[in-house]
Amino acid sequence: MTANSNPNRMFLVIGTLIAAVLIGLAVFAVQGKPAAGTAEFDLQGVPFAGQDSAPVDVVVVEDFKCPACKNFEETVTPELKTRYVDTGKAKVHTILWPFLAEKFSLPTDDGKLAAQASLCVYDQGGNDAFTTFKSILFRAQGEENVVWATKARLKDLAGNLESLDQSKFAECLDTDATAARVDAMEAQATRARVNSTPTVFVNGKQVTGTLADIGAAIDAAK
């Protein structure tokens, strides 16, 4: 045994202990979090299309300013509705994640205003009214790098919903009554590691936004 063997052994023990602590901290940091590509959503109060009893939950994360979301709604959603929503196999929830206005440093976060307006409609008319207004918003979509969903424009668009109490809608929008709920949706999208729209999850598992992949995931989840 050499004269410096004991100090070396002590350093080895200390190093081992530090490594063990770091590993423990890393495990603690990820414990309870969904694995990559999966997410746990709180869907209470989140608008959806379909029957409440449908066994499969599809979550679509969208921004009303997003051109790809508009394309998804025009090309994928109709077939998804026919094959899976109308047949009671799945219900499709909308999580709003307005990020493009911030990305383009726009003076007004009109993506968030559109999201707030859609929830004002939802509060009055429920899922059906929300779905109708969602379609109206995507049809009216302007360029992603300009402000188009102003409160005045959103009130005009809401005028297309005959059953909507327009004064109540205007008050809801003007007072930002649903802003906190939009923030909560954004937080859910962030926790789910969403980095683009549309992003689709089937029973918490992320899939591509194609009809084939969404359909296959729904069929496998039944």
Short key terms for the protein model shown above:
single chain, disordered N terminus, five-stranded mixed beta sheet, 9 helices, alpha+beta, 222 residues, globular
Care to give the gist of this entry?
The chain is of the alpha+beta class and 222 residues long. It is built from 9 helices and 5 strands; from the N terminus they run H-E-E-H-H-E-H-H-H-H-H-E-E-H.
Describe this structure in words.
- The protein has 222 residues and is of the alpha+beta class.
- It contains 9 helices and 5 strands; from the N terminus they run αββααβαααααββα.
- The chain has helices spanning 5-30, 67-75, 77-85, 100-103, 110-139, 151-158, 166-174, 179-191, 211-221, and strands at 48-49, 56-62, 90-96, 199-202, 205-207.
- It has a 5-stranded mixed β-sheet, with helices on both faces.
- β4 and β5 (205-207) form a beta hairpin.
- α5 packs parallel to α6 (151-158).
- The chain is globular.
Shape: globular
The topology string of helices and strands comes to HEEHHEHHHHHEEH
| Low-confidence blocks of residues | 1-5, 17-34
Count of extended strands? 5
Count of helical stretches: 9
Helix/strand-derived category reads alpha+beta
Q: Strand order across the biggest sheet?
A: 1-3-2-4-5
Radius of gyration based on Cα positions:
23 Å
Specify the biggest β-sheet.
5 strands, mixed
Query: Ends: how far apart?
Result: 67 Å
Mean pLDDT value: 89
